[in-house]
Amino acid sequence: MRQERNNIFFGIDWLLVLFFLLLVGFGWVNIYAASHSDESIQVFDFSSKYGKQLLWILLSIPLIILILFINAKFFQQFSSIFFILSLVTLIGLFIFGTEINGAKSWYRFGGVSLQPSEFAKAFTALALAKLMSDRKYNLSILKNQLKAFIVIFLPAFLIALHDPGSAIIYLAFFFVLNREGLTLAYIILGCTSIILFIATILVGVKIIIGSLFIIISIYLIYKIYRNKRFLQFNWMRVVAIYLFSSLFIFSADYSYNHVLKKHQRDRFEVILGKTSDTKQIGYNSDQSIQTISSGKFWGKGFLEGDKTQGNFVPAQDTDYIFSVVGEEWGFVGSSLVILLFIALLFRIIHRAEKHANKFGRIYGYGVASILFFHLIVNIGMVIGLIPTVGIPLPFFSYGGSSLWGFTLLLFIFIKLDAEKSYDW
Fold this sequence. Notes:
By secondary structure, this protein is mostly helical. Helix content is 68%, strand content 3%.
């Protein structure tokens, strides 16, 4: 048994490793297509974006080996310390951070930039798993729910101060809470809030509040008519719901008009159809949609995408990397990429459910939820369904911090899964 544990590769789910290698490899191919500047193939040109990404991929190997070398119990024991350190690095951005693309979200060390928010997701998942795996922890108790919310929203708040778009990823953890017994009412409340926020933007405060009043009035009339108990009806609950909803609508309107920056409001309005702008704010999304649709069924072929090679889509090697897939590999290639992500997610959930250790299961669901949220938001952004919020496509988008963050996230789970049968 001891010899088995000394072998860092023992018990590893190689199917997860294969999915990782396929995604990273195909991601690099598309980064090459989006960033190469001539016909000559210079794979090891480390001054280019594809060369730098290849270097980050190679440097991921010692990171993976280090993760596999560490005993799985270490991640559980020190998860709180990792979480605190991640908060410190996020707070440190206010003093030592470097602004890139309008967001002060980076540390610069010479010619290398690191984004701590990419690593904070893994450490938040560890901290949440540590909290909820305690035998005395009961998610049905309000005090324990508040503890989980603090773990989730504290890093999200710090990130939102620099980059509001990246902070929305932390909503993914509600899928984890739901799996562990949190009532679905929270998710329904969240979806309702999103609907009210969008409706407020589209038609204004007065119409939404008036419509809400009419709906609640009809509901009251129906309940009173059916129950015939006017005095015994729970009026306070209905009034509280209406007042809370009205307060949320007013705050949503204020936040939209006074908190969000103009370019962020413009993106919402383009997506929601309030304005038509394919030259400035809506240019990225419009060009991305055209690029994807031009690939049709089979795609134009590797390095044959004229829009990709012509640099029509800004940030195509980062946020809009999926548009390269759509143009050069077509519907078939795009579908295969999505299916590969789905297979990865299902495999993670399948392995997580086999954990006798609650910590490993909760962390596994955290990994799957984060990857799922990134996938949905990024592709939704690229095809024009979601405003541009700067969310990378896992293992695909250019960036060392992004690649290392997702590698750390996944391989900690692979290590936990490899030792799930041992007594921690």
